[in-house]
Amino acid sequence: MSTKKEPAETAAPKKAAKPEPVAYMGPALRGIATQYRVYTDGAPEALTEKAKALPALAALIVPVSKMAETRANLKKPGTPEYTVYNTVLKSI
């Protein structure tokens, strides 16, 4: 009969990975969000509620790692970001 011991877990419990900060790239929404604002703990509740009412708005909440690319595309006619931005702008 073998008396092998199982290795004890000595590592500290893993912390949940913190989500990547997001940036709002859409037009300013008075009392809700300003353009290019970065949120470290996800989009605020008021912004997510507005995005439920206006689904195109959700496409303008992007991870910070995509912020520069999205900002450049906002100025290029024909890109999805440009189209969504103008759709939101007309809707507010």
Question: What does this protein structure show overall?
Answer:
The chain is an alpha+beta fold. The protein has one domain (22-91). It contains 3 helices and 3 strands, in the order ββαβαα. It has helices spanning 45-53, 67-74, 80-91, and strands at 22-24, 37-39, 61-63. A 3-stranded antiparallel beta sheet has the order 2-1-3, with no helix packed on it. Helix 2 (67-74) packs across helix 3. It is elongated, with a radius of gyration of 21 Å. The N and C termini lie far apart (75 Å). The mean pLDDT is 88.
Describe the SSE topology:
Layout: E1 22-24, E2 37-39, H1 45-53, E3 61-63, H2 67-74, H3 80-91
Antiparallel strand pairs: 1-2, 1-3
List keywords for this structure.
elongated; single chain; 3 helices; alpha+beta; 3 strands; 92 residues; 3-stranded antiparallel beta sheet
Distance between the termini: 75 Å
Widest sheet, order of strands: 2-1-3
* Alpha-beta content class: alpha+beta
What fraction strand?
A: 5-15%
Number of strands: 3
- SS element count, helices: 3
Radius of gyration: 21 Å
Uncertain spans? none
Number of domains: 1
Can you tell me the overall shape?
elongated
Work out the helicity level: 25-40%
Q: Largest sheet, described in full?
A: 3 strands, antiparallel
What pattern of helices and strands is seen along the backbone?
EEHEHH
Q: Overall pLDDT, averaged?
A: 88
